Amino acid sequence: MEIVILLIPLALIVLGLAIAAFFWAVKRDQFDDLDSPGWRILFDDRDRTKDE
Amino acid sequence: MNSAAPLCWHCSTPATGRLILAATPDGDKPACCPGCAAAIEGIHALGLGDYYRFRTEAGPPPDRDRADDAVLAPFSVPELVAGYLQPTTSGDTRLVLRIEGLHCAACVWLIEHGLKQLPGIRDVRLNLASARLHVTYDPVDTTPRDIAARLQQMGYRPALPSRDGRAAVAREAHRTLLRRLLVAGLCSMQAMMYSTALYIGTFDDVEKVFAELFKLTSFIVATPAIFYSGWPFFSGAWQALRARTLTMDVPVALALGLAWSGSVVALVSGVGHIYFESLAMFVFFLLISRWLEQRQRLRVAEAHSQLADSLPGLALRRAGDGWQPVATHLINTGDHLQVQQGELVPVDGVVSAGEALVEEAVLTGEAVPVRRSEGAPLLAGTRVLEGHLEMRAEGPARESRVARLGALLDASEAEESRLHLYARAVVPWFIAGTLVLASFTLWWHRDAGLAQGLQYALAVLVVTCPCALALAAPLAVSAARARALASGVLIARPLQLLALPGIDHALFDKTGTLTTGHFAVQKIVPLDPRWPEQTLRQVAASLEHSAVHPLARALSALEEPLPVMAFRQQREGVSGEVLGESWMLRAAPDSGSGEPGVTSVALYHCGAADAAPVPVMRFDLADRLRDEAPAALSALRALGMTPLLASGDQAMAVASVARTLQIDQARAGQQPEDKLAWIQDLQARGHRVLMTGDGVNDTRALAAADCSVAMADSSALARDAAGMYLLRPDLTLLPWLHNLSRATRRTLRMNIAWALGYNALAIPFAVVGLIPPWLAAIGMSASSLIVSWNASRLMR
Q: Which of B79, B179, B722, B738 is found 20 to 30 A from B776 (Cα to Cα)?
């Protein structure tokens, strides 16, 4: 049970890192456009061949 | 006209008149104009033909009126572009552009791939919602002008974004809320984890020290969620109290503050319950509702900022002996400016030299250009069609008439807050009742001890929180606005949308509203059998090809143009030499066909120098009824509205349209005051009137009607006056709006009934102490979420 004394601070550090990573992503405009990226993956980049 | 004309492969406009074919690897495709043909060929030449497979909507027709150079000019001026460039850490440059003509997700694909083929392009990101394009490139390899030129080649119109701070402010607020939301989410989940361990009683007696550790950790993770994420509630409550009123922030802040302090006391003393996780969760759910609402609002704000972006970014200003390009926003009163053929007038002013034909359709809706010479007023946003002018600025760009379009947004915001007021009129009383109830609960349980009593009072505060009630109306309305925007209607005054089902009379303007407002060739009558018809059509098309007149576009589309010598355009018509013969095109000799609403012009052959010109072919042109008008009107009739027609046009033309559309009451020769008087007369007799129009002459009627809709391409003043504005010219949007209005009202009623019903049901249980605070938090949040979800159904 004593292991929680180590685990809890670790969990808090991970939580802090997660929040920091998210703030960084917001700052880098990653949440400004929630519509286009969903479409983007649907378009393939290769050239089409005629037989389709 | 051939009704089965092929649709343009690019923009889906029927390719009437002469057909242009664009060569693609899959064979020739029809195009409606050389611009579209160039776009089709350009896109295929870049190997991006897949665009036509991906897209879900037709492409933008290239701007036929604006010269290519006028679009690209601002990008060649370093000082002007500099404001939109940003160096990146890796030595590249980042450029922000606005793109006109975006319509579906395939545009994102096309633009991103088309640009990446340019040398030195590192990254391209296009935001479909805000129409902003971010390009990162190596300044050694490419220039902003290259980027703009490539965009234009693909059929889009690049422009420098206006410096409208509003959208930026809204975006920053959105980001802040997003941060608060995430902190609340992560922290409440963490807190919940520790609390669950406590609830299920893992630590009974045996390991007291670990229980204390878990409580402490719960405090550590929940506190940021309560104070950082919940800060808007505390500051909102403080502001409300300072203004001596009660908003829903007050009980929320009170509950948060009380419960947090109580829990801290319990933590320190080791006696009593802690509620950190319930509080964090409470904040999290409240913020979800707020975030949903704000996201919708952001979309509306971005659509508005796109509308406001219609001024030219660059003008030519006198500097010493020459002319120097200057950014529009730097123009001052008294500056001498030059406006060349095809360009937009940058600011309001007065002509100081020269003479030109000016199209003022943007502001007045009047398609016929007017001649402006020295001393005549010029309005920003109008276009010089022929000739060039020098002008004196009478004020900065932001004070011009067209800039007042921004007033539309302000008006709509004021309106929206009135809608909130309606909720706010109820909410303070509700909250006062809540606070009284909470105190009563505390007194009722006075025998159970203060700690227990506080817990019950807390449950009452949380369970009765009128969040759902306060959100019910604004959420439904903003969801309806977002839905309308996606379908092509901008709703400036939401209360008008809600009023639509009560409308019993729909008054229409004719020109530009029920009709397209553009002339089209209806009939061609050969008058002289000696000439082959094909040749005469070709001659007419060639003459009008270089002419600037509303009729010219319709005629020049008839055939492929031939070279014209000695071309002259005068007030009464055009003349020139084609195929070695001398020709003239002007009003038909007699009154033409004599049909209502039809304008007739004739082609004359000029033989010997002294002989009178002989009419050889007559063209009957008319303003065509919109294709969807009959269907739209019968749909409105089915919804219980009586269509009426009021036009400034002549009686014959109005009667003809009224007959076709089966409108019983039609009035011709109507002045703006007459239209207004008709509406007021109907209103005085207890009717409710919807006005649909597009011109300046409709403005007063639009402002007076119970509901008003301005057509796409309306004059700016009409747009300002109307409560709703169609972004695409489609009359069937009117019955659609009616249905949306009904759905919105239904949702609104459901939401309010739910919010009130839930509170009425839950309060007795909370007062007698049957609901623990954590359950109250879940119940309240669920109530708000149900209201949000119900409103969001409108967006589908």
A: B179
| Position with higher pLDDT, B619 vs B155 | B619
Query: Is pLDDT of A48 > 50?
Result: no
As a whole number of angstroms, the distance between CA B631 and CA B629 comes to 6
Q: Flag the least confident range among B464-478, B523-537, B649-663, B724-738.
A: B464-478
Q: Do A1 and B207 touch (CB under 8 A)?
A: yes
Q: Which is more confidently placed, B621 or B13? A: B621
Q: Determine the residue among A2, A4, A24 to mutate to test chain B binding: the one whose Cβ has the most chain B Cβ atoms within 10 Å.
A: A4
Measured between CA atoms, how close is B485 to chain A, in angstroms?
A: 15
Helix, strand, or coil (residue B226): helix
Say whether pLDDT at B602 is over 90: no
- Average pLDDT over every residue of A5-21: 93
**For the segment B562-588, what is each residue's pLDDT rounded down to a tens digit?**
888 777 776 667 888 888 888 888 877
Residues 6+ apart with CB under 8 A from B384: B339, B340, B341, B342, B343, B344, B345, B356, B357, B358
Distance between B186 CA and the closest CA of chain A, angstroms: 8
Q: Which of B115, B112, B101 lies closest to B61, judged by CA?
A: B101
Helix (H, G, I), strand (E, B) or coil at A51: coil
Q: List chain A residues with CB under 8 Å of B187.
A: 15
Contact B788, B293 (CB under 8 A): yes
Task: Give the pLDDT band of residue B65 (cuts 50, 70, 90).
Answer: very low
Q: How far apart are CA B507 and CA B525, in angstroms?
A: 36
pLDDT of residue B64: 47
The pLDDT of B595-620, averaged and rounded, is: 79
Nearest residue of B to residue A50 by CA position?
B26
For residues B224-253, average pLDDT: 86
Which residues from B are below 8 Å from A18, CB to CB?
186
Q: Does B109 sit within 8 Å of A40, measured CB to CB?
A: yes
In this model, does residue B204 exceed pLDDT 50?
yes
Contact A1 B210 (CB under 8 A): yes
Cβ–Cβ under 8 Å, residues B767 and B453: no
Nearest residue in B to A31, CA atom = B175
How distant is the Cα of A24 from the closest Cα of chain B, in angstroms? 10
Residue from the list A18, A32, A42 with its beta carbon closest to the beta carbon of B127: A32
Least confident of B294-308, B490-504, B619-633: B294-308
Using an 8 Å Cβ cutoff, are B325 and B346 in contact? no
**Cβ-Cβ contacts under 8 Å, B109 against chain A:** 39-40, 43
φ and ψ of B779, to 5 deg: -60, -45
Whether B679 and B698 have beta carbons less than 8 Å apart is answered as no
Q: State how far the Cα of B381 lies from the Cα of B399, in Å rounded to an integer.
A: 12
Quick one: which H or E segment has residue B157? strand B157-159
Residue B322's CB: how many other CB atoms inside 10 A? 8
Which one has a higher pLDDT value, A15 or B520? A15
pLDDT of residue B134: 85
The length of chain A in residues reads: 52
Q: What is the dihedral of CA B40, B42, B45, B49, to 10 degrees?
A: -40
Q: Residue B431 and residue B787: Cα distance in Å, rounded?
A: 19
Q: Which residues in chain B have their CB less than 8 angstroms from residue A23's CB? A: 179
Going across the sheet that includes B356-359, the strands are B370-372, B356-359, B383-386
> What phi and psi values does residue B783 have, to the nearest 5 degrees?
-60, -45
CA distance B88 to B103: 30
The answer to whether B331 touches B366, Cβ cutoff 8 Å, is no
Distance CA B44, CA B759 (A): 62
User: How far off is chain B from A38, nearest CA to CA, in Å?
Assistant: 10
